[in-house]
Amino acid sequence: MAICYGHEPICQNLCGYSVEFCWLELPLFVGAIPLVHHSKAFKTEVALAALAPGVDLPQLAARFGVSVHQVEQWRETALQAISTNFADPLHLEGLAERYDPSELLGTIAENLTRGLAMMDDKGYCIYANPALLQMTGYSAMEIRSQPLHDLIHHHYPDGRPFPMQECPIDRALPENFDVRAHSDLFFRKDGTTFPVLCAASPVFKNGKPIATFIEIDDVSKAQEASEALRRSEELFRTLADNMQHFAWMADPCGQRYWFNNRWFEYTGMTLEEAKGWGWEKTHHPDYLDVATSLYRDFMAKGEPWETTFPLKSQHGAYRWFLARVVPIYDESGNVVRWFGTNTDITELKDAQKDLERAAKEKDRYLSLLAHELRNPLAPIRAGLDLLNLLGKEDPKLQRATAVMGRQVAHMTHLIDDLLDVARIASGRVALRKERCDVAEVVVQTAEDYRDDLEAGGISLELSVPPEPVWIEADRTRIAQIMGNLLHNAGKFTKPQDQIRVRLSVDHRPDGDRVIVTVEDTGSGIEADLLPNLFNPFVQAQQGLDRSKGGLGLGLPLAKGLAELHGGRLIPYSAGPGMGATFTLEIPYAPSIGAEAKGRLSRGVLRPLKIVVIDDNKDFVNMLEVALSAKGHQVRTAMTGEAGLEAVRTLEPDAVLCDIGLPGDVNGYGVVRSLRANPAYASLPIVAITGYNQDRDRELSEKAGFDRHLGKPVSLEELEAILQELCG
Known about the structure:
Its EC number is 2.7.13.3. By secondary structure, the chain is of the alpha+beta class. Helices cover 45% and strands 20% of the residues.
């Protein structure tokens, strides 16, 4: 008998078995215990005995019937094999002394989860470990009562009787051969069967065969898992091959190795042609570089992605597809494969093109309609002005021209709304954002509507903070939103009703918001109308007289403009007769300049010496007049070189400089030149420019400007900045 500690080197170098056969569960050493005949294991047993300290090698050689040279050679081979598998081989040299090989072998066999049996030359079981007894359901006494073959191996898997003389396990001893990885079906005591993988080897003593050693693995769970995997793969293939999408898989580097049938049906390619990077042949040449570049970039990042591109069919036609690709990770988070799908979106893209064409036609028609409606309004407006001049003394004529004037203004307002809604829908509204005081805009707009509202018996109440409330917005468009909301409230209120306008700032963790509410006590809104209130041309029910008028464009326009500002417009009504509330939310934008303006109202900016550098003569002249009127001393320059000279001459308190200056020195050159001079290192320099994108602001700050203002700039805002920088 032999016991093997370690890994494959011992098995291969000494006994000749591969690790796949001899691997068993040994908690302490992770080893194996094959019981083998002399020709394979004898050397191992002799080598282990020779490892015992103080062993008499000649005596040991005589006991085993071999030469001393053979014992030394086999012991050296064993030590070399052990040293490749254990960190401290010297620690193992005492194994044979500290453990009795027979006792250790018995302990291991009794605790294995694999079935072990020893069968005599008559086929009776002379040893069965607990694992085998549990597998078969027999007791130790029962399993010895008959030939082992008659108990657990008496029929073929197809039900035919299995004669013992045909059984390879029973033939192993008399015919002297090993059985390796034999797959079969064994029977339990209760008649049920279980699949096994077994091995058998004859055991010799003094050169004579005396028994058969049998090793049995119950592979039921492995087969069940394999069958479950097979069914799962079959289901996957069925789904993948019958789905409308193309599907494919790729290795971590992006080389594809599997495609579903839909792919092959469409492309006409074979797997050999498509695998790896062969699928690139289906891409349109105009899109191939972009598609493959995206493919490789996202593969490198290990992130899901999607894109669209055309793919060629086997008939040569191209269709558009949406590609979606996701990584499949292992337990360590590493990408082990990629799974992708391609969805045909040709019809969708065609529909989108049709919608775009229809939208362009609609916009063209609306523009033409507005043009044709404006043309007759121009002479009507001129005629009204003439009547006002000629009929100053006639009250009846004055009243008539006032009515016509209001109707012309109303018509113009409707045309403007119609065009604005069309522009918003097509994304052609360009906002001219600036920092503005929304409180001021709300008050001014409300006051513009006050006379008309109060003339109709409707009271207007304002609740607005006294200090500025700053937002980044298109001032004109914010006024337009407020005007539409007030106009809408006025249409659906009656005498003695009220309209209340409130403004506040709501401080939130995700960003402060300016809240403007327009609340009325008018006719309210039907519940089923609220969800569609912002659709163009949707209106509340009116009678045949249509006394409220309008096209149903004011609220959709207000909502669209609010969203363009990063805000929203929220309607609410408790129902008919309960009034309505519209809440406008816009991002709050406090700034140092805004705060400075607040301080300006409590103090007066001292007279400053200011150099203005700009190549726009009209702007320079107007700014010079305005600043001089405020008591400041101003020196102007039209080029960068002249501006630098003006700074050296005047020694100013501040410099206002354009960026896009003519000549060799632009605005960046001016500020860099001044900052390079220690005398001007802390001189306040403000950029006033038409370049007002985020990138432009970054460049001006990097160049050395203290502030960046986009044109046009108000004198009030400019003085606030100067107050902050110059005190």
